[in-house]
UniProtKB/TrEMBL annotation, chains A, B:
Keywords, alphabetical: Oxidoreductase
Domain Aldehyde dehydrogenase: 10-395
Renumbered residue ranges of the record's region Disordered: 1-32
Gene3D superfamilies listed in its UniProt record: Aldehyde Dehydrogenase, Chain A, domain 1, Aldehyde Dehydrogenase, Chain A, domain 2
Matching PANTHER family: ALDEHYDE DEHYDROGENASE-RELATED, SUCCINATE-SEMIALDEHYDE DEHYDROGENASE, MITOCHONDRIAL
Protein name, UniProt field: Aldehyde dehydrogenase (NADP(+))
Organism lineage string: Bacteria, Bacillati, Actinomycetota, Actinomycetes, Kitasatosporales
Keyword Oxidoreductase carried by entry: yes
Species whose genome carries this gene: Kitasatospora saccharophila
InterPro entries in alphabetical order: Ald_DH/histidinol_DH (IPR016161), Ald_DH_C (IPR016163), Ald_DH_N (IPR016162), Aldehyde_DH_dom (IPR015590), Aldehyde_DH_Superfamily (IPR050740)
Length: 494, 494
């Protein structure tokens, strides 16, 4: 295994369809193992300073992942049950990200070079600014994206692109996929003449805390739960030398359906919602988790009927791992039992022949005045909550209670009067990193204009984890004053 | 007074030349006062969304400061003893900053707009990204720049430019200057049709902690001491909703003199060093506080003699306030008494007729092998430490012990062999935000290529507090997906 840990407890790889342990592809890393991984990574900083070689690394990594596609898909599916179609798409996104960052590095525009030449008249010195890597990046793999947000994912790609070596805390939900990808990336590094240690992995809960606290760790990228992420955020801030903690800690992704929208296309909205919140078994960061619908009948009945019918037809399927399944079932049951909550579709276990651990989606509804605080916490998995609002005073009252979120969406009618529209949008805008109009937040694209990150807890820094702008998470500006050309980085020479 | 606090203890304005209390221009703010100030500021967010009006505000603020120049200079000098020449320059820099940010706002390039149009072929949605203000900015005025880093300074200018209302925690060293400038800025706001509360002030130590903890405070800018800054940093990170803390907490600004440089121009370097570290009585963030000089004689003698002679001729002058004076005298005496330290010029009180509290600079020297940890802490005021190094192993050993710093400088000879030069620069680069070659760090310029901020503790985030890039401290990206033109911010329309 690439993590080279020899003494810790074996890390199991579990089949989420059955709960059976498949293998033990790694060992948990103790403090000495973490130290070895971070120190080895730090030693590669100088080698990574070679910009063309970094671009070559990212291309070689993408090629290596493509070449191993069958093995990657089989391993990832065995560990996550996400299925071949979804994982094929995710692998394509992952290699696309790596190649995008390769072009970003080669282009050099991300360095935001500024050159202010000396002005002998005013005595102004020669000043030239570029950007320099922060140091070793600690990356926490996400459970729900075993490729695109894990070992070979966006945080790793953007950090390597910036010139930062990476140590990944692998995710316990897909340790074998993590090790497989790490081997491929380390091999790609060696093939382009870089040390394999530009990327390392560690496994185990305690390894994550040691990684954040290691003196040579210079920044952290995290995608995961509010509780775990907040604890690591606090550790990063409490270090003798605090470091940036770029965390995505959960998102409710509220949706507002206007009265006119419901009146004109209730069934379409209900069906669209069901498709969105059950996509990938509701295991997307952008799953719509709270949907404000107008209480006026008969539109409400039509919308709820369409959503319930469509969600009930979604095939039962396992969740990412048995722990997430337990949390989903317990969390959904707790919410369903809150006062005032109406269960439109009961969440629960739904064993199938090949997946005894499969579950079915749930759909809850509640009046705005009965909205319990616990319904404002994200419930990971195929569950959403319809909040029935009665009038224009309900809406702002509910929106004022919402935490920061990755996305906020609104479904409206073409003839919606701007006098009603703009105030609502003004209330949604401060909540979210992406405002979605007449579409569902899970329908998205990885393009330069994409913003993935919103006010806390959706993100802990005002940055994006998706798209090439993510490279700025791992850089700091540095200015050279009056430096002779042979002492300047290449991009700062005339 | 503009802070409208009615009940707290009166805040004294003290004459740093004599220690006499001049006036009580404000009162300390309690929690309710801070709440009132932040809430009033937050109510101006919508008004500040008007970009042309923000540009007008920044121009009007600069004009108002210019028009009140005599009163500002007299008040600031009475409170800081910085003198008319220095304060005239600082006021010019302050109004220049305000006008630069006015142009930045009007130009709009800082919004980094990206538009990716819909692609019906792939189903890609229309995505348009801009930047949006974080909310109320808390700005901590700096003791050593009563204008350029205080109420009307760079943090305030960049935050207002970004569209963030500002509440300034005024500095106890110049409360009257702070209130005067606040009145001028609030008047400027009203003249351009904005609420005066786009800028407020609070006074008192406790007010600072309440300000950082207020739920509506969205980001903090701080320039000051390591101890105070770290405490506020920790409060910002520990909030239920953590917020960015952009702090500048001190800087040692190491300088390395190569053997060849000392051999060829020892006297010039010694004289230049004295001018740099005594400039403004050593009260610059960029004061060279640790100077590595080759121990080889006779060059060392010539360099030290020149530095001592020049520093001894610097006129005795008061420091910014009596507390800073006490800290300087105690800190300098402590360092002078450390084992192995040689006192080349004894720091101490040097009363003059018009300034009984004046002090004179100090100059210390120590062998690299005797370098005590306490000499690696910044001593605010006109003191620097020469560290005599013997060979190529001393240098990296000392540099490895240095904390992050705003600047790192090297004095070298024109014929320095690159084989010796590049490894040294490679060791300096990770320490600093600005690398200075054959010049002193206090000689600088406010231009787009300037970087003011370095690794912790020189800065707590990888950003700059000087130059128009500082606007990014107060913004977060936001993307509009499939929004009709009438719902888009102006800059995102076709």
């Amino acid at each position: 295994m690439t993590d080279r840990t020899r003494t810790g407890a074996p890390v199991p790889s579990t089949d989420p369809r059955t709960g059976a342990v498949r293998a033990h592809p790694a060992r948990e890393a103790g403090p000495a193992d973490v130290d070895r991984a971070v120190t080895a990574a730090a030693r590669t900083l100088d080698a990574l300073a070679d910009r063309p070689r970094r671009a070559a690394l990212l291309h070689a990594a993408a090629d290596a992942l493509d070449a191993a596609r069958p093995e990657i898909l089989a391993t990832a599916d065995a560990e996550t049950a996400l299925g071949e179609a979804r994982l094929t798409g995710e692998l394509a996104r992952t290699t696309h990200q790596l190649r995008s960052f390769a072009r970003t590095v080669a282009d050099g525009g991300y360095l935001e070079v500024r050159i202010d030449r000396a002005d002998p008249a005013t005595g102004r010195p020669d000043l030239r600014r570029t950007k320099t890597p922060l140091g070793v990046a600690a990356v926490f793999a996400a459970g729900n994206f075993p490729l695109a947000f894990s070992v070979p994912g966006g945080d790793t790609a953007s950090a390597l692109a910036a010139g930062c070596p990476v140590v990944v805390k692998a995710h316990p939900g897909h340790p074998e996929t993590g090790e497989l990808c790490a081997r491929l990336l380390r091999g790609a590094a060696e093939r382009v003449g870089l040390p394999a240690d530009v990327l390392g992995t560690v496994h185990g809960f305690a390894a994550g805390t040691h990684l954040v606290q290691h003196p040579l760790t210079a920044a952290v990228g995290f995608t995961g739960s509010l509780r775990g992420g907040r604890a690591l955020h606090d550790l990063a801030a409490a270090r003798p030398r605090p470091i940036p903690f770029h965390g995505e800690l959960g998102s409710l992704n509220p949706v507002v359906v206007t009265e006119r929208a419901a009146a004109t296309r209730a069934a379409e909205i209900g069906t669209g919602l069901a498709a969105s919140y059950t996509l990938g078994q509701g295991q997307y960061c952008t799953k719509p988790g709270l949907v404000l619908v107008p209480a006026a009948r008969p539109a409400l009945d039509a919308l709820e009927r369409a959503a319930t019918t469509a969600a009930a037809q979604a095939p039962a399927a396992p969740l990412l791992d048995p722990r997430i399944r337990e949390n989903y079932l317990a969390g959904a049951a707790h919410r369903a039992a809150l006062p005032g909550v109406e269960v439109l579709l009961a969440p629960g276990p739904a064993p199938t022949a090949d997946a005894p651990l499969a579950v079915r989606p749930g759909l809850l509804a509640v009046a705005a005045e009965d909205l319990h605080d616990d319904l404002l916490d994200e419930c990971f998995g195929p569950l959403t909550v319809l909040v029935r609002y009665h009038d224009d005073t309900d809406l702002p009252a509910v929106l004022a209670r919402l935490p920061g979120t990755l996305t906020a969406a609104r479904h409206h009618a073409p003839d919606e009067p701007p006098a009603r529209t703009l105030p609502l949008l003004a209330r949604l805008a401060p909540l979210a990193g992406r405002l979605v109009l007449n579409a569902w937040p899970t329908a998205t694209a990885v393009t330069p204009a994409m913003q993935h990150g919103g006010p806390y807890p959706a993100a802990t820094t005002p940055t994006t984890s998706v798209g090439t702008s993510a490279i700025h998470r791992w850089l700091r500006p540095v200015t050279y004053q009056d430096a002779p050309p042979d002492l300047l980085p290449a991009e700062l020479r005339d």
